[in-house]
Amino acid sequence: MMSIVYAPLLLLSHTAAGGPHLEAADVCTTLTAISPREETPSEMREVPFVYGGVVLAPGDEVEVTAVRGCRRTLEEGWVYVVEGTYRLESRDRAVLLVSATATEAPSPETRSPKNPAYVRIQRGSGTFSLPLHLFRGGKPHVTMYTVSGEPFSGRYFGSGTSVLPRITWPYSQ
């Protein structure tokens, strides 16, 4: 059985055999048609990244295995595909979200009410492939939230100044 998972601009599918996966074959072509830019390649590229701050509840894990995009680096104003694995043991259900923590208040021109992308997950392990919208920059992360919206496990990643080196606010346990 396949169901559509919320992700603005890009189509996600979720199959019983695996986790949510982004149909990313023509993301760069689609984005170029929506907002033409110079030097936009026609296919996704591997984007190098490093890990930053991490907080994990006992038994939980979140790993980013690949970041792909139309640019060679994480840049404001672009959309990327974040692929990875997760293990949820601390709770029965959660929401796995890919987003970027804003470093400054968004202006009306850069605000995106339909950002971020997420999928509901259940206890166990799986894979994901979700879009990351860097409309206003920020610090990229993959985070698990309770069904009521409290973060409890997460990992920041990025490159250069986009990496949040450590998490300084409390996560619920």
In helices, the fraction of residues equals under 10%
SSE string: EEEHEEEEEEE
Q: What is the CA-atom radius of gyration, in angstroms? A: 15 Å
| Integer average pLDDT | 77
How many E strands? 10
Amount of beta strand: over 45%
Biggest pleated-sheet summary:
7 strands, antiparallel
Shape, principal axes of CA atoms: globular
Taking the alpha carbons of the first and last residues, their distance comes to 33 Å
Number of H- or I-type helical stretches: 1
Strand pairing plus helix content: what structural class? mainly beta
Which stretches are low in confidence, meaning pLDDT under 50 for 5 or more residues running?
A: 1-21, 32-36, 108-114
Short description:
By secondary structure, the chain is mainly beta. 5% of the residues lie in helices and 49% in strands. The longest helix is centred in the first third of the chain and has 8 residues, at 27-34.
